[in-house]
Amino acid sequence: MRLFLTALLLLASFGHAQAQYQYPFQNPALPTEQRIDNILSLLTLEEKITCLGTNPTIERLGIKGTGHSEGLHGLALGGPAQWNRRKMVPTTQFPQSYGLGETWDPEVMRQVGEAEGYEARYVFQNPKYSTGNLVIRAPNADLGRDPRWGRTEECYGEDAFLTGTMAVGMIKGLQGDDPKYWQTAALMKHFLANSNEVGRERGSSNFDERLFREYYSLPFRMGVELGGSRAYMAAYNAWNGIPMMVHPVMKDVTVKEWGQNGIICTDGGALKLLFKEHKYYPDSVWAAAQAVKMGINQFLDDYKVPVTQAVQQKFLTEKDIDAVIRGDFRVMIKLGLLDPPAQNKYAAIKDGPEPWLSDKHKTLARQVTQKSIVLLKNEGNLLPLDKSKLKTIAIIGPRADQVLLDWYSGTPPYTVSALAGIKAKLGEGVTIRHEATNQDNRAVNAAQGADVAIVVVGNYPTCNAGWAMCPDVSEGKESVDRKSLTLTDEALIKQVRRVNPNTIVVLASSFPYAITWTQQNVPAIVHLSQNSQEFGNALADVLFGDYNPGGRLTQTWPSSMDQLPPMLDYNIRNGRTYQYFQGKPLYPFGFGLSYTTFQYSNFRLSSPKFNKAGEIMASVDVQNTGARLGDEVVQLYISHVGSEVARPLKELKGFRRITLKPQEKRTVQIPLRAADLRYWHEGKQQFVLEKDLVKVMVGTAANNVQFEKSLDLSKN
């Protein structure tokens, strides 16, 4: 009797709660799938087709949705592309993704994502702005397999494990730490193997299933399984002849294996490419139908007519549409858009001063930029500069007084150029000579007799030209791949170096350059990427020793184009990336110097066997043996000995960025996971852990191993 009465009370309570809502889907106490069932039952076919766009808002039912905003390195509601052009808003701008990768710090990525997500919520919910969106197109999980790729600036580097780890950090920051709701939804780009611009709309990236599983898809899988992303964009290109937006792996792998159950969208204008460029289908109707059947639930182009006709012509059913748009509503529910605001802590982000004007976000932008700077050369310890010993300094080059944005940038609230940052650092008492070019020998005259000459050079992220145009063939961007790795302004560097032996080159670039002459002849070189609003302040902090650089390269920098395989060769085993590169690079993967020195000792493995969690702990003692506080990036690599299949020469399997005081020693522990040692067995269609011998190595870069241990997998 007591159980019966309890059941009646629960039923009455549920009925009372349900009575508060006009429709069951509005009740946050109901299971998500039950709420979506109710939504689908209420929608007309026309409304369901509307939900195949990027914003599933249905005003008739009070369903509030959200669309997409770009956000690779800061929320983009402005910038050169004039994103959100109806109501552009300034937002905090960080270094380009390429520079974010060079921090080698997933916690930094989390903080960047958190700040960006907060600003997205703020402008979306603040009555003064009420604009923008909560689905953020970031991170880019593509891999920079070739430095000629025009969009290298958007990636975190060439290594799948590093890229996946950094992507997970960004995703966690964007989406937040609430167990029920997301701050924003992280939409990864571009699935899959989209790393050439010329011909991308009709080309095919060809490689075997092992490379798909072990390399190209790994960052996306990590983003879903470890980061919690439930949204991604399908790439323009095909893989092995099948366009990605209709490729079976979207359903068979990302949905059924990884658990991706949210948004899968096309790239802009991709629907028409299926029949006009790829010529995979004869017309838009069949193309639209197959895209939906393969899992696409958001189109970024004109899709309504072909989808409607596909239903009318029986190529597509209403149930097919129901099956995919469920994912759209799962994301909207996770964002809390269908729930009472009081239940969602992120709904309260709407009051107070603009966050992009806060000291917190300004400081974060500066700190992230500091961490992204890579010291490439420092002969004779020319750096850091002692400003008390300087009387005259020359600041030269076309990038000296510029902070350049790219196509996916927003509008920063302010910018600090290299010139402005150095001026602020020096204050009064030091004469600064500034020349952008060597017209009429001005740069040479400025450098001659100066205590130090700082030459700031690099690419122009938009090429300072229209769509698909780059007058300088060494530059690239979306729609344009690079045809040269030669730095055009190396001629300027030579002229300055000829008259001033204390020349420092600041390479502000979105990708590698083959600066062979500069490396051989200039005493000091630093690299950082474009876009940060704190570019100049962070650079000055490094040049004058207020911050010790600890960034590391995320790509192999070749000495020349001759070291690269053909651009469209996607089989990285043919000499691509540090994993298979056979030559001597200009700079290796993982490379970066410091103003202090570090010593490694006592490298050990916790056990010859993996524990129940499938891990062995690798440990090494690292000591700062210099006189300055500094950051070291400890890198863990492995190599298989006697494998039955072709394996990389070396693979990154863990890393840790640490800060050590002078003479401080610390034990750094990095887990080595058995799952990360497996290879994809195409015959068995599963990952397999071989019983081979594995060399476990710790070092400061891919080419600088300090210690190694052998791990016999036959004992596991």
List the helices and strands and how they pair.
Elements: H1 2-19, H2 32-42, H3 45-50, E1 68-70, H4 97-101, H5 106-125, E2 135-137, H6 160-175, E3 185-186, E4 188-191, E5 204-205, H7 209-216, H8 218-225, E6 231-234, E7 238-239, E8 242-243, H9 249-255, E9 263-265, H10 270-276, H11 284-293, H12 304-312, H13 318-334, H14 359-372, E10 374-378, E11 392-396, H15 418-426, E12 431-435, H16 442-447, E13 452-458, H17 490-499, E14 503-508, H18 516-521, E15 524-528, H19 535-543, H20 577-580, E16 598-605, E17 615-624, E18 630-641, E19 651-660, E20 665-673, E21 679-681, E22 686-688, E23 693-701, E24 704-712
Parallel strand pairs: 1-2, 2-3, 4-6, 5-7, 6-9, 11-12, 11-13, 13-14, 14-15
Antiparallel strand pairs: 7-8, 10-15, 16-17, 17-20, 18-19, 18-23, 21-22, 23-24
The coarse silhouette is globular
Q: What is the share of helical residues? A: 25-40%
Structural class: alpha/beta
β-sheet strand percentage: 15-25%
Our measurement of the CA-to-CA distance between the termini, rounded to an integer number of angstroms, reads: 57 Å
Nearest-angstrom radius of gyration? Answer: 27 Å
The parts where pLDDT drops under 50 for at least 5 residues are: 3-14
User: Could you tell me the number of beta strands?
Assistant: 24
Largest sheet: 6 strands, mixed
Count of separate DSSP helical elements: 20
Give the strand order of the largest sheet, numbering strands 1, 2, ... along the chain: 10-15-14-13-11-12
Chain-averaged pLDDT: 97
